[in-house]
Amino acid sequence: MYAVEVRDHMMIAHSLARPVFGPAQGMHGATFVVDAAFFTSDVDEDGLGVDIGLATTVLREVIAPLNYQNLDELPVFKGRVTTTEVLARHVFDALAGRIAQGDFGPGGRRIERVRVTLHESHVARAWYEAAL
Predict the structure, then answer these.
(1) Which strands make up the sheet holding 28-40, listed edge to edge?
(2) Residue 103: Cβ-neighbour burial (10 angstroms; 0-12, 13-18, 19+)
(3) How many angstroms separate the CA atoms of 111 and 96, rounded?
(4) pTM value?
(5) Pick from 45, 63, 94, 122: most CB atoms within 10 A?
(6) pLDDT at residue 27 in the model
(7) Whole-angstrom Cα distance, residue 116 to residue 121?
(8) How far apart are CA 1 and CA 97, in angstroms?
């Protein structure tokens, strides 16, 4: 299996209002490094699995509505706890939608699987991965 992975970042604010989260129950900020990996079984006649430029652009567009936002105030997360895992799934779903729309060009049809990893810090990360 081939994979192309691109990276960006987003800065958010949120609170995790449940006792299990200890001090993170209060409002706090986080800067997430966001990796998106796109898996294909084959490459095209140019040797490409996925167009890196398109993947980079689409990832940036997908996370833009979250960047510099208080996630507690966004309707899309109303009633949800915005853990790293939940955010990874949100980004995955948005990327999957953009792949289905054809935003990855002809090579997007080859994408079989996607993994979205959110790095909370240099020692902690979470991801969501699934077949399309």
Answers:
(1) 69-70, 2-14, 28-40, 111-119, 125-131
(2) middle
(3) 10
(4) 0.96
(5) 63
(6) 95
(7) 15
(8) 22
